[in-house]
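Posting this for the archive.
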Amino acid sequence: MMKRHAGFTLAEVLITLGIIGVVAAMTIPTLMSNTGKAEFKTAFKKVISTVNQAVTMSVAIDYLDFGDANTGTTNTESIFNIINKKMQIAKTESSATDDVSRMFGSTGGNNYTIFFADGMVLSYPQSAGKCTNWLYNKANCAGIVDVNGVKNPNKLSHCVWNAGEGTTSTTELDNSVTNTFCQENNAFISDQYSVRFKGQQLIPNGYAARYVLYEK
């Protein structure tokens, strides 16, 4: 008597592969998006930590922090020189070059933009200095970090604070954004974040930046 061998028919194999393909097509874009968000978040935390380490070293060696810093780049007591002396910088720009315009649009025109060796970028007003606290010189002490430099998407992260936690649901940086609460499924997390110089720290500025740095 001939022994029968169990197995799958060609039709069954093709149907199984088709189902796997459909599931992959549905899940891979979401997985890639979540991976990209995670990379952006990690990179933002890294640049905050790295700059703050540089300021700590500046205070220890030169007795100089963002609150003492003067405007400009040539001044030895400027924000630029605090960063330049303690970090690896690839290049700097003081006007809206092609790269800066592509990343930040019109905001690049009146800014100093620092390109770090690891690909991250920090852009801030030429008038930045004496950044002692949250309110003093508030407009001049804000900047933007792009965690992957000239690479796309070059978009500012944004969300509004969760009204359920007792704060108002208004946005700080993008008045066109409404009901985009700072929650994992709602917050728009990209490669750019608003930051602020304050005393001995570079701190997140805006709901999205604070959400990423301090998220629960």
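The longest helix spans residues 10-62. The chain is about 35% helix and 15% strand.
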